[in-house]
Amino acid sequence: QVQLVESGGGLVQAGGSLRLSCAASGRTFSTYRMGWFRQAPGKEREIVAAISWGGGRTYYADSVKGRFTISRDNAKNMVYLQMNSLEPEDTAVYYCAGSSRPEVIITSRLGYDYWGQGTQVTVSS
After folding, report:
1. What sign for the dihedral angle of Cα 1, 23, 60, 62?
2. Which tens digits make up the pLDDT trace of 55-85?
3. Contact indicator for 88, 11 with CB cutoff of 8 Å
């Protein structure tokens, strides 16, 4: 089993940057596919980025491609989301998620088994 805890959210002006961190517990962390999702008030939770268990494959939503970078450090049981050139539309609660499915990379919310509690990101104009 895996337990996830996000951190690094906060308030930032448009054009600024934030780095979100996800700390994972469990000796099998390195075998999990990981992802970042976000949910704004009144909207559905959506995929932001995903990464394979070894970190060699990544996926990004079109809305964040070129601005966000997902990475992982299995030795530290950590997953990161570097967010640059932030826009007000990026305002949401960001969630770290893990999946034990056999697929190399998971982009569907329903494909994830473990979720963190979320961290708030607010981008002002």
Report:
1. positive
2. 899 999 999 999 999 999 988 989 999 999 9
3. no
